[in-house]
Structure formats: structure tokens, C-alpha cells
Design brief:
Layout lengths: L4 H7 E2 L4 E3 H12 L6 E5 L3 E3 L2 E4 L1 E3 L5 E5 L16 H17 L18 H6 L6 H7 L3
Parallel strand pairs: 2-4, 3-7
Antiparallel strand pairs: 1-2, 4-5, 6-7
This protein binds zinc ion (2 copies).
Length: 142
């Protein structure tokens, strides 16, 4: 999907064995995004940005492109049994969260709001897959 070898090596950081989310997002935006629709890249690689050890996803605020990776979302990643569709539930929240960013929402401090920031999967588990009233209002939703 990412075609150029030089771009690929820039995105994949060999020292960290991870993929730079900023570069991957930019590449997706340049290559695939278009007006009037949101483009979402779903990956199975370990994502990071230079200031953080890892990220679950990344999006352009008010933009047209977002990415997420399922790499760190499964219980198996942490040596735990895969139960209750954790992976799908977490991924759903992560996708809604990143899409929220593309619609201009910033991180929210309402504990159950899907726009809360998540460093660990436990953070994702704590929040719901819904927007709080304040975020809904900002999206123009009833
Ligand atoms: Zn976020
Ligand atoms: Zn909110």
C-alpha cells in the first residue's frame, strides 16, 4: 500500500521497530485522501510518534484522514486471554475517537466520553463508545 521504498523506511523506524504515526498519516493523506470524505487507515503495526512510546491511532484535527492500529488493542498482546470481544470493542472506540478528531473534536475530560485520551488499553476500557453531551453539541448532534 505504501509504495515508495524511501517513504517506507522513513515511516518504519528500525531502531524502535515501530511505525511513525505522523508520517504514516501524512502519507495516507497525500496518497489516498480526497475532499468530502474521511479516509481511515487501519493497520496492524506498532505505531508511535516521537513524543510517545506508542499510540493507538492518530488523526488530523478537523482534517480528512485518520489511522488506527489493532496492534496493541488485543488482550493477547498483554498475555491475557481474549474474552468478551475486547479487541473489537476497543477498536470501535478507537475508530470513533479518531474520526471525532477529524470532525474537529479535541480530547475531552468527561470520563465516559469516547474523546477521552487513552495511553493504555485500560483507558479505552474505562470509556464508552459514545460522545458526551458537550462533544455531541460540538458535532451538531442532538
Ligand atoms: Zn485522541
Ligand atoms: Zn466529550
Amino acid at each position: 500500500m505504501i509504495t515508495s521504498t524511501s517513504v517506507r523506511s522513513a515511516i518504519q523506524d528500525p531502531a524502535r521497530r515501530q511505525y511513525n504515526g505522523n508520517l504514516l498519516l501524512k502519507e495516507l493523506d497525500t496518497q489516498y485522501a480526497s475532499e468530502f470524505i474521511k479516509t481511515f487507515g487501519l493497520f496492524y503495526v506498532d505505531l508511535f510518534i516521537p513524543i510517545l512510546t506508542h499510540i493507538f491511532g492518530q488523526a488530523f484535527l478537523g482534517g480528512r484522514t485518520a489511522i488506527a492500529s489493532i496492534y496493541r488493542l488485543s488482550n493477547e498482546r498483554y498475555g491475557l486471554k481474549e474474552i468478551n470481544n475486547y479487541l473489537i470493542t476497543r477498536l470501535t472506540k478507537e475508530v470513533i475517537h479518531e474520526l471525532g478528531h477529524t470532525f474537529g473534536l479535541i480530547h475531552c475530560h468527561v470520563p465516559t466520553c469516547v474523546m477521552g485520551s487513552s495511553t493504555y488499553v485500560e483507558d479505552i476500557d474505562q470509556k464508552s463508545s459514545n460522545f458526551c453531551n458537550k462533544c455531541r453539541a460540538e458535532l451538531g448532534l442532538p
